[in-house]
Amino acid sequence: MRRVVVTGMGVISPVGNSTEAYWESLKAKKVGIAPITHFDTEGYKATLAAEVKDFDPRAVMDVKETRRMELFSQYAVAAAAEALSQAGISDLTEKESYRTGVSVGSGIGSLQIFEQAHAKLMEKGPGRMPTLFVPLLISNMAAGNIGIHFGLKGKNINVVTACATGTHSIGEAYRSIQVGDADIMVAGGTEAAICPMGVAGFTALTALSKETDPLRASLPFDKDRSGFVMGEGAGVLILEELSHAQKRGAKIFAEVAGYGATSDAYHITSPVETGEGAARAMKLAMDEAGLAPGEIQYVNAHGTATHLNDLCETRAIKAAFGEAAYQLNISSTKSMIGHCLGAAGGLEAVACVKTIEEGYIHATAGFREAEEEMDLNYTPEGVEREVTACISNSLGFGGHNATLLFRKYMQ
Predict the structure, then answer these.
(1) Single pTM value for the model
(2) Which H/E stretch holds residue 319?
(3) Distance (Å, whole) CA 236 – CA 350
């Protein structure tokens, strides 16, 4: 199997629209949650979200392109632009373009265009449906638009596994390079579903926090957690075959060394209570990397701040790591950026790579006290610690479990 490294990162997030702005915000425990501005929340039980601020798609695309992309696609293209620039990838030859692919997923696609088109259909009839309704709606258009915008003609795929989408997308890109399907993959997740249907839908599931204090709304692993807060954005990595990166003289930020993907085969929304499925995903990733539990220093948890997720993920970490679980730092990026659904895994993967690069583990913001069974180190304050290997977990509705293992690059 070919080795795969990270040579670029790109971010659009509720706490910053670049990798460095995002990372500095995470280190500073900056919470990007506030009252929803995308629509009027009168009558809604959940009124807070982690919205992207000050985003201008015209920084990376022309006005005509923006009209042919919904917000989730715009976020993806903007994040990919930063990642490709950081990796020093531009002006590809035709041969190089055939070996450069895209694996960027969205869990939902555009609910906004669905809302708009449905209203027009009901008010004015089928003859007034927007011409581009379908291509604006469907979730694969984030990956498709990245390929079109940058001229990337290799494998172009869209993994959709709800909240595990971003992590699975990176994992499948990693596999594609390992087996020789591509030399470079643009990989990650994107989402923009903070709209009436999105918020009302997750509220109906009793999944969202009804808290009105932004600093106490998203509380992963805390005994006062009350549900997740919707977020949005995009997180993208450039994955590259090692020798290809070396020949280009590219800066290598970290190595992707393991990937685990499993199914709970249990329930459409609830994780299996033992955490067995997520534990197996972590074990698969560690086995592939050839690392023992004691060689991992950090877990970037799925950590949604729902009662069952945080408890079951804690059980999963204990099952996968044994006594070594008590030596880990565990934190949830969602404490600051909310739950970005299909984008979550991409944004959290960027956090893992930056953790390895800088030797700093960001805090779980807002964490004060956990329940009795949840007795691991959830990192209430950021900590400087050398991290040679870390894990990122994502768990999606339908029982989808995905784990990525990143390690410090060594020749």
Answers:
(1) 0.98
(2) helix 307-321
(3) 7
Tell me the helices (H) and strands (E) count for the chain, helix number first. Answer: 14, 14
Distance CA 371, CA 222 (A): 7
Rounded CA-CA distance 400/288 in Å is 19
Tell me how far apart the alpha carbons of residues 333 and 314 are, in angstroms, rounded to a whole number: 16
What integer is the mean pLDDT of 29-52?
98
Q: Which residues contact 119 (CB under 8 A, 6 or more apart)?
A: none
Label residues 79-93 b or e (16+ Cβ within 10 Å = b). bbbbbbebbebeebe
Tens of pLDDT, residues 52-107: 999 999 999 999 999 999 999 999 999 999 999 999 999 999 999 999 999 999 99
| Residues carrying an active site annotation | 163, 302, 339
Beta-bridge partner residues of 263: 400
Helix axes 111-124, 196-204, angle to 10 degrees: 110
Burial of 138 (0-12, 13-18, 19+ CB in 10 A): middle
